[in-house]
């Protein structure tokens, strides 16, 4: 560790900030440089599609739709860390700066404006960006992608009561924005190419349950619909392949993300739909590590290479990478985990949900339940709504590969905490 003088980190999202803090807490005494292309103090992204969209002069209106114990986080309250946190840890912030070239031989990162930063170890926490649909961008209706705080603030300004909002894409982000728009009394339509919403995250039965909840709030779901562009006639909106037009004052496009691999790829680092790393977070280039949304890594539990786009992964892989670039050999082991807040529903998924057999613990009608997903009699995944405590135990059962009989899993009296502690 004493031979290291500078650790540079490109990317100032959750993964980058977590890595910077962990490196310092791990005993590194040299220089830490954190480079980010956004000018704002590094902030948390999950609130952008939820609380940030409903926290303004319409907050009282929003509150009428929600239980009183749900807190709203303002744009000012989403910073990952305060300014003094970085100063106390001697982390040099270089914000509003874009990395343009990585020289892995010279151990140097070039930035826009002509400046460069050297490194002894480098962490690439490059994140991802919304996948663009150019055909939807041309026409009379304003369109938005949601990735940054500035995007969220513009979107919030356009979510006025009565405005016609069309969400193109029924994934997690699309459904979260739909919920936020409903809370602001917008007229909301979700257009999804697939046969169900949140298909990558939820099994069919839970996807339909969540869809029914959205419908009960007034959201119109248009499934198996192929959007081809904007309609240009007397009624501006979204044009579908079957000739239908969905009227819109705003089109929000959320059809997945693209990992930001260009910097790494141009430097000769191996990339395959993500920056490829080993179990320690090391890339194919010496002294270069990567973590977060842009990374494809080995999933020990299910024997596959995956890319995870969720908060828990970004945080926990960064913690492992920080230890390893300081000399440890700690493999990153975590069952994938995501969550989504929609209205008063806290939806959480651990592991995989696309199995043929599942067991329900609780009742769908109560909106407080846990579903175990089984394969060959083993627990390989779990989905919960408003059961944050139990899904933690379910994740431990998955990670420890602890077998539990199906009849016990569905019994609310069965103690999951004790089972997970075995």
Chain-wise SSE layout:
Elements lengths: L5 E5 L3 H12 L5 E6 L22 H5 L19 H6 L2 E5 L3 E5 L4 E4 L4 E3 L2 E4 L3 E3 L11 E4 L3 H10 L5 E5 L3 H12 L3 E6 L11 H13 L3 E4 L3 E5 L5 E4 L4 E3 L2 E4 L3 E3 L2 H5 L8 E2 L11 E3 L4 E5 L4 E3 L4 H15 L11 E6 L2 E7 L5 E7 L4 E8 L2 E8 L2 H13 L5 H4 L6 H5 L2
Parallel strand pairs: 1-2, 1-7, 2-3, 7-19, 9-16, 10-11, 10-16, 11-12, 18-20
Antiparallel strand pairs: 4-5, 5-6, 8-17, 13-14, 14-15, 20-21, 22-23, 23-26, 24-25, 25-26
Helix pairs in contact: 1-8
Structure, described:
The structure is a single chain. The longest helix has 15 residues. A hairpin with a 4-residue loop joins strand 14 and strand 15. The protein has 422 residues and is α/β, with parallel strands linked by helices. The chain has a 5-stranded parallel sheet. A 5-stranded parallel sheet has the order 9-16-10-11-12, covered by helices on one side. Strands 22-23-26-25-24 form a 5-stranded antiparallel sheet. Helix 1 runs parallel beside helix 8.
């Amino acid at each position: 560790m004493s031979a290291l003088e500078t650790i540079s980190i490109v990317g100032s999202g959750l993964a980058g900030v977590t890595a910077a803090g962990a490196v310092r807490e791990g005993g590194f005494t040299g220089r830490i440089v954190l480079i980010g292309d956004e000018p704002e103090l590094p902030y948390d992204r999950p609130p952008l599609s939820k609380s940030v969209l409903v926290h303004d002069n319409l907050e009282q209106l929003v509150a009428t739709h929600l239980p009183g114990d749900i807190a709203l986080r303002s744009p000012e309250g989403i910073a990952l860390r305060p300014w003094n946190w970085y100063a106390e840890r001697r982390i040099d912030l270089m914000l509003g700066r874009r990395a343009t070239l990585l020289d892995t031989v010279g151990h140097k990162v070039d930035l826009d404006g002509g400046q460069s930063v050297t490194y002894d170890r480098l962490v690439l926490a490059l994140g991802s960006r919304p996948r663009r649909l150019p055909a939807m961008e041309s026409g009379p209706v304003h369109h938005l992608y949601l990735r940054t705080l500035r995007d969220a603030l513009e979107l919030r300004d356009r979510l006025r009561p009565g405005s016609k909002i069309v969400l193109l894409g029924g994934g997690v982000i699309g459904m979260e924005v739909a919920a936020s728009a409903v809370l602001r009394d917008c007229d909301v339509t979700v257009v999804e190419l697939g046969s169900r919403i949140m298909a990558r995250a939820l099994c069919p039965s839970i996807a339909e349950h969540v869809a029914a909840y959205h419908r009960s709030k007034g959201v119109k779901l248009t499934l198996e619909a192929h959007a081809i562009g904007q309609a240009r006639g007397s009624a501006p909106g979204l044009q579908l392949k079957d000739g239908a037009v969905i009227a819109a004052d705003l089109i929000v496009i959320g059809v997945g993300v693209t990992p930001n691999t260009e910097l790494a790829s141009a430097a000769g680092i191996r990339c395959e739909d993500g920056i490829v790393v080993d179990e320690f977070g090391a890339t194919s280039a010496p002294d270069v590590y990567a973590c977060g949304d842009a990374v494809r890594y080995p999933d020990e539990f299910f024997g596959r290479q995956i890319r995870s786009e969720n908060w828990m992964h970004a945080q926990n892989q960064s913690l492992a990478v920080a230890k390893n670039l300081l000399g440890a050999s700690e493999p990153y082991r975590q069952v994938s985990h995501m969550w989504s807040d929609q209205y008063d529903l806290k939806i959480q998924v651990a592991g995989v949900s696309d199995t043929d057999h599942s067991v329900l613990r609780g009742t769908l009608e109560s909106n407080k339940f846990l579903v175990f997903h089984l394969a060959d009699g083993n627990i390989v995944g779990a989905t919960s709504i408003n059961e944050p405590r139990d899904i933690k135990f379910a994740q431990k059962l998955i990670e420890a590969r602890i077998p539990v009989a199906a009849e016990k899993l569905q019994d609310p009296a069965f103690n999951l905490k004790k089972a997970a502690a075995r």
